[in-house]
Design goal:
Blueprint: H1 3-20, H2 26-33, H3 42-54, H4 58-61, E1 81-84, E2 88-97, H5 102-113, E3 116-119, E4 122-125, H6 132-135, E5 146-152, E6 157-162, E7 178-181, E8 184-187, E9 190-193, E10 198-202, H7 206-230
Parallel strand pairs: 6-9
Antiparallel strand pairs: 1-8, 2-5, 2-7, 3-4, 5-6, 7-10, 8-9
Helix pairs in contact: 1-2, 1-3, 5-7
Length: 235
């Protein structure tokens, strides 16, 4: 009997690794399985585990092994360029639309808070669904390129620049959204991102998302006020 949970944990870990490149810690797997019925079919168990992992902080839920994390030398200024083989799972900790002014970014965040997105120049009402937390698919498009702040399971952070439009990347992304990076170039500590090397898994860390929105608006407003104070007078 005691070998059954261990066997199930191994099966679950294999499924998550093979299908989503997620490598949860043994501690996370043990805690998760303790809340599930032992008769639950593996496919259903895998889906529940996936939802929980996408909603988790990967610095506590995923194994911080070197093979599954960013290279230790990514911030070495003497390394001009290196290739990340991957796959490495990261989570979004911030995003900026480099094509929008500070005021436009504030307006975009406020529109999303009202449940509105954009389709070209047309404002549309976005209705949340049960899948939103899982897919992170409600995204404010029409801008870009985007600058993303990313973090791996070890807690190492780096910036990514969207060189080509990536489906699902936009100001409407949820903070905590998980992405898989593979075969990507890191130039001077910045990830060069495009559809061929970045895949969105989805997810959201609710507390971080709420805090980021509030802090981001405050930062943008402070930057606007600072620029107005330092702007030369016309008189």
């Amino acid at each position: 009997m005691s070998s059954q949970p261990s066997h199930l944990a191994t099966q679950l870990a294999t499924q998550l690794a093979n299908t989503k490149n997620l490598h949860p810690t043994q501690q996370w797997l043990t805690a998760f399985l303790s809340t599930q019925k032992p008769t639950t079919p593996l496919p259903a168990l895998t889906q529940t585990a996936l939802f929980r992992l996408l909603s988790s902080d990967i610095t506590t839920s995923l194994a911080a092994e070197a093979a599954h994390c960013l290279p230790l030398n990514i911030h070495n200024v003497n390394v001009k360029e290196l290739r990340l083989q991957g796959p490495v799972v990261v989570q979004l900790t911030g995003i900026e639309d480099m094509s929008k002014s500070r005021w436009e970014q504030i307006e975009a965040i406020q529109a999303l808070e009202r449940g509105e997105g954009t389709k070209g120049r047309e404002i549309i009402r976005v209705t949340a669904t049960e899948d939103d937390n899982d897919s992170g698919a409600v995204v404010n498009k029409g801008g870009g390129p985007h600058k993303l702040s990313l973090q791996d399971a070890h807690g190492t952070g780096l910036y990514g620049i969207e060189l080509k439009e990536i489906k699902g990347v936009g100001l409407g992304m949820s903070i905590g959204c998980k992405m898989v990076l593979k075969n990507a170039i890191i130039a001077r500590g910045v990830m060069l991102m495009e559809p061929t090397n970045a895949t969105i898994l989805g997810g959201k860390i609710e507390a971080l998302h709420k805090a980021w929105k509030q802090n981001r608006k405050a930062e943008l407003k402070a930057a606007i006020e600072a620029s107005e104070r330092t702007a030369p007078s016309n008189t």
